[in-house]
Fold these 4 entries.
Entry 1:
Amino acid sequence: ISTFRDYDTVIAEANRLPWGLAAYAWTGSARTAAAVSADLESGMVSINQAPLGFPEVPFGGIKASGHGSEGGSEAMEGWLVTKFTAENTVF
């Protein structure tokens, strides 16, 4: 856990790491919360709370933490294949 006085420094420090599974931030500002969520290179971001994994939401990271998600409806997209078949039934 680290504290920072400068927003750009904290974002640069967090994004410097090769992992991007989850990030946590505490702030009293809705504007800062939205900016943190947008600026962090992480598959999941938790603002002002510790629990992050819920069955109904996607779980996954980016960078060295992997690509793609499991859980939630988004996880199913990787298993789906769309196929179109046209058949001439009159010969």
Entry 2:
Amino acid sequence: MKTASITEHLVYKTDKPAISVMLESDHSKEIRILMRKGQLMKEHKAPNAIVVALFEGEINFGVNGETLKLKKGDLIALEANVPHDLYCTEDAIIRLSLSKNDSVDRVNKIVD
């Protein structure tokens, strides 16, 4: 058994989103993304299916030529290789569920 908290040790960055691995299981990696209002994760895609859960705040989630306004409690699931972007409209705590085969380094490169 493994446990983690999405709300402990929150350290936001002023210049870009803060990305950290909360825990890894045999099948997935659970990533926390902390975004300040006005921060952007430019368009990118994941090599495997993902789930994005907004724990706190608000973001504009661009996908398939439209912008979805996600708020606290919202989830979105995407198949592999779907281009998407995130723009933070209110300080946010985001949970990103990745395949075990995916890399957190890939996610970090999006914000660098």
Entry 3:
Amino acid sequence: EAVRALLRTRGLLRAAADDPALRAVWYRVNQESEERLVPVLARLAGPDADPLDVRLAAAAATDAVRIALETWAATDAGTEGPASP
């Protein structure tokens, strides 16, 4: 099931390159993921954590995943092993 999900994601990301509406959904989903990650990281970082540092960490993590998936989707690399997400 995970392999099928990744392959569907690849297809959607390839389609998003030419579809502004689909691309907007992709960016919105990533923004929502970042927003949901902030409180998780804040709890893990503890009460003395700088809120800006927490937000930057959430943004970096979310964008790293986004960029990795987009880069992989632009290739024909497999779903496992070298060059996989």
Entry 4:
Amino acid sequence: LEVRKYADPPGAVVVPKVFAQLITYTSFDDTQVRMFILSPNETADTPRSTVLYGYGGFGVGLNPVFSASALAWVEAGGVWAVANIRGGDEEGEEWHRQGMRGEKQNVFDDFIYAAKYLIDNCWTSREKLAIEGGSNGGLLVGAALTQRPDLFAAVVCSAPLLDMVRYELHGLGATWSDEYGSAAIEEEFEWLIGYSPYHQVREGESYPATLFTVFEGDTRVDPLHARKMCAALQHAQDQASERPILIRAERNVGHGSRSLTRTIDLTADSLAFISRWTGLAKDGGMAR
């Protein structure tokens, strides 16, 4: 008689030791913001290649969940951080409202101050810090890279909203004016153009290495946002910079669910790109 425990299913693996902690940092207006940090060590012993992830919109909270991507990154020697910035619901509906419409800049500032915290407390350095986000989180990292390009080594921006003056004209944009505001209303137009990443690209700036990932079947956020932003950054990038601005286009897939194989390929390409430009590959970590 063979007895097999549920705790030891076929294919079980030994999970590497990962240290997780919840910290609180101070944003630009003295608001206290929470952030989860996953790392190979319990303390910030040395600046490591780090991915800072965020979303910050629609009342969507980033609560602790299992992430194979984060686990792989930390196992390779990096740090993975998730910032619970305004716009989500981590602290209730008022937290969401403080990051929507005319208050949207709070979201970007919270994220930028999360990056500053990681640098100032020796978790990482500007040469080793990457940011990643998708959909509304793509807007977040797009705003961060145009407002503070000096803070980041690499950016992965997936299925993003980036032209906030025209976002209502494409995909499902017309349904999101309650969250962002409408360019048809003068006051709200000023909110939008004030942070719209596409409109904040500056000629001759040295931008971080950036990978846009788009999905040709995306009916929620039109890939045109990433295409035109990629072209604008390529044109504006400091000619002395060796950091690339790239776009990864994927056919026959949309904004949401995808096959496991496609998920693995997208994750591998994204992490390999970040690894290359934050130095993790050079330090003996990931390579594609």
